[in-house]
Amino acid sequence: MAELPGGEALKAVSARIAADVYDIAKGAIAKVAKHTISELEIGFSSYIEASYRKYSKVKTIINRFQPVSLVDIYEDCSFSYEDSSQIVSEDEIWESKDGFKRLIVSGTAGSGKSLFMKRSFLRFCEVNYGILPVLIELRSFNQIAKPSIKQCIHSILCQHIGHFDEKVTNSLLRSGKIVIFLDGYDELYSALKRRMASEISDISYSYPKARIIVSGRPDERFSSWSEFEEVSIAPLTKRKCLNLIDKAVHPQESKNKFYNEVRDSLFETHREYLVNPLMTYVMLFTSDQFVDFPTDVGAFYSKAFETLVRGHDVMKSDQFVREVNCDIKIKDIEGIFGYFCALSFKDQCYDYTPQQAKKYLKTALMLCNSDNNEDKVLEDFEKSYCLLIFDASKYNFIHRTFQEYFAASCVNSSEVINYLDYNNSILNKDLDAKRYFSMLKGVGEEKFMAKFFSLVLSEFLKSLYPIRNRNPKKFLSLMVQQIGVDESGSIRMVRYGEVVRFFVIAYTLFPLVRPGIFSSIFDEEENILKLNEIEYSEMHGMKLKIVDISKHNARFLAQLNIYSSLKSLVERAKIMESELGRRTAKLKRMIEN
Fold it and tell me: Is the pTM above the cut of 0.90?
């Protein structure tokens, strides 16, 4: 285990900072005479030691009840610039003399923003850069009437160095002998973000030598911070993922098994999850539940839920009792969480303010006939079960697919939710809901086919099949308003028609029943000669020829590959309807016999 730096290393860091502060301030500030270099050294030593102890231990999803050494489990991040293939390492950031003096580190939930900020703070405590590190977790400002970054820095130092003059703090900032880590800009309440952005800008302008590092989720405001470079935490590579697993504090046998699976094949088959550090930990925590890691996401999430809610207790001694606010059976927890997911997914709500989370939980508890308090259940979901994480002043899922799976599972089993109406509402909102419907089919295929898909398919054909040949223009315009064709003749952009539901049905549902039944229309080759009269336009950063469906006659449209593709779609849907009818009849005969 990594220990608190001590002895000569700690003395050297503290002594250098103390000497520099004394040299910077003496002669300019009368009160500095009250502090000898020795007193400053003791004060800074106390500050560095206390701060190191505070940030060197962390809890993770697999070490929720006993903190572990951050240094031991930490895997260095890599960073990327938007619209660039350039990758920057942590060493390049911290060893750079001229660059990265003003830096924004952005990343999504679970990408490791806060761990990076804490590890970077510790680095400045360990290495004799001669620069004083200060870490401020910005969410703490939400509870302060008039928060100030400068005042916070001064207050932190005053705790360890009595009578530390505010002018000395200003001198530190002016001299560049300080690096300020501002963690979690996006965790600030909305009303505070503008004010904090203004203060960050003022500090940056007033103290050009001071180094400022800000972390947060991607935010449009960052584009206006002209003095700051912005980098994003890059997804884990296979090597970094393996290193993260190897460093995890987890039973060795379980860790070795999962490590080997990721090394041999799992990273390629489950890349979407394993590029995220938090999701990698969830998979490691769940891996003991499987002989072979499932490709079926439903099976994975069912076990992940059980492991998060109950599995950790098994690893503890008989005397271990989990601290929870509400004593709820695991089946009831699943029901409450399922309704929470289903209600919010229907509203296209994917993360929640505390008020929104409590609103959905209150309804979920009522639907489950539970008299538990939504505030206490929400705290259990976050702190005891890790079903939700609190990030950016909002509750988020560890991974978006958690919400989709438990929404599907709830809708499939619920006697309260109208199955057809709920799923129609998902289609009507033009959601990218392929994963949700795939999970819905997985948890109850017969119900999916009989109570939803067959009805939707019938409606689809009733609306489109009669006009597919008689009126190509009307048929095509139901689906598409414009297409954009590049210089090679390939379709690169489609602007859908008003009746977008039909396209969503084809794109979202048909592949679930027969993979490949809906061929892509984006890469269909068109006859470029027929489109020469269309002028180039700039769309999505490319030069495209825009074909406006309403401005061309039926004969022209009937010659387009996009028309033949959609026409083929309807033909194949007709075959699918026929096959589905035979399948239903066969099942009926089997039941009757």
Answer: no
